[in-house]
Write a structure and sequence with these properties.
Keywords: Membrane, Transmembrane, Transmembrane helix. With 63 residues, this protein is an all-alpha fold. It is built from 2 helices and no strands.
Length: 63
């Protein structure tokens, strides 16, 4: 009589699902927001470097 071998996947092995993609989106969201703000025209009377710092600030707050 032959023994039947079964393999059990390791506990850490998880197939990619939409639930696994959510953390990736959450990590990328601050970068996306900051980059989008960099493409918005600088308000009149504000130096461009101040707008860049503001975009970085908002990205950090979102994160």
């Amino acid at each position: 009589m032959k023994e039947k071998k079964t393999t059990i996947p390791p506990a850490g092995a998880v197939k990619p699902t939409t639930a696994n993609k959510k953390p990736l989106l959450m990590m990328a969201l601050p970068i996306i927001v900051a980059v989008l703000l960099l493409f918005v025209p600088v308000p009149e009377g504000l130096p461009p470097y101040a707008w860049h710092y503001f975009a970085i600030f908002v990205g950090v707050i979102v994160g």
